[in-house]
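Narrative summary of target 7.
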Amino acid sequence: AEAKKKKDAKRKKKLAEEKKRKAAADRKRKAEKERKRKEADMKKQLEAKAREGRARQAMSKYAPRIQRKVQDNWYLPPRGAEGCNPIVQVNLAPDGKVLKARIVKSSGDSFCDESVEKAFMRASPIPIPLDPDLYSEFKVIDFPFRP
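Modeled conformation, tokenized:
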């Protein structure tokens, strides 16, 4: 009977140790999984910031080109250019083709607004970077028109 008790105690001790080892391994595995998730999130954030930086750089480079091309295709409205500064939302294809242009902030002069919308359509395709990574930043742009 004494031998059986010792054997049972030894078995219970062994089971408890095994349970502890499994719990420790589980904690370690979960911690590693969480560390990898955080690392992946950080990498995504850094990539997004880098992409935003490239997009800002590209926009500052391409905005004057877009403005120039639209101005070259703009017919001055009968009332002149004074105050003709609407903000136009432009939907673009990857090659710069203007799919749609609409006024999102009016200049207060419907002739001006309409002439600017038409100028964007005539200016198609407008110059945008051909880098597919930047297309998402140029797919829809709100462009402040300045005569």
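Strands lie at 87-92, 98-105, 140-144.
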